[in-house]
Amino acid sequence: MSAHEFAFTSIDGEAMTLARFAGKPVLVVNTASECGLTPQYRGLQALWERYRDRGLVVLGVPCNDFGGQEPGSEAEIKSFCSTRYQVGFPMTAKVSVVGKNAHPFYRWAVGQGGAVPSWNFHKYLLDGDGALAATFGSRVPPEDKALIDAVEAHLPK
């Protein structure tokens, strides 16, 4: 089983299968608008702009699991992200990422050896085949050398 077998709903309410990103590395990040780490949106946008033409997909996954820091609706989240941080990368509808209601992708990622998200802005890097390639904790910023090296290692040649 690979991540390509999972689907989310986009922030606009459309079906979003991870299979549509086959052949591309995907950085899946659970996000929140009212978190001390929310400025990471700026770095995620910059990372996506830097590497999107080479295949990188950054996928924001809003969740309200940690401290109730994503209380808004999808429309409010989208507006906040676009106006405050000029986010242009794809985002999903709000989901749970931990516990019994965790989205199936997150249960799979943990089962693949990925760390369980313990806060907002936890990052999973998928390779082009949909395998879990790396996990980065919430406090690892998008500008971190190890994260960038991992992304570059999985960009299509």
- Looking at CATH, which topology would you report? Glutaredoxin
- Structural class by SSE content: alpha+beta
Q: Tell me the series of helices and strands, N- to C-terminal.
A: EEEHEHHEEH
Strand count, sense and barrel status of the largest sheet are:
4 strands, mixed
> Radius of gyration from the CA trace?
14 Å
* Multimeric status of the protein: single chain
Q: Which CATH class applies here? A: Alpha Beta
Q: What's the overall average pLDDT, rounded?
A: 97
Q: So, CATH architecture?
A: 3-Layer(aba) Sandwich
Morphology: globular
Write a structural description.
This protein has helices at residues 40-51, 74-85, 104-111, 145-153, and strands spanning 7-9, 15-17, 26-31, 57-62, 123-126, 132-136. The protein is an alpha+beta fold. It has one domain (32-153): Glutaredoxin. Strand 1 (7-9) and strand 2 (15-17) form a beta hairpin. The longest helix has 12 residues, at 40-51.
Note the topology.
Blueprint: E1 7-9, E2 15-17, E3 26-31, H1 40-51, E4 57-62, H2 74-85, H3 104-111, E5 123-126, E6 132-136, H4 145-153
Parallel strand pairs: 3-4
Antiparallel strand pairs: 1-2, 3-5, 5-6
Tell me briefly what this model is.
The protein has four helices and six strands. With 157 residues, it is α+β, with helices and mostly antiparallel strands.
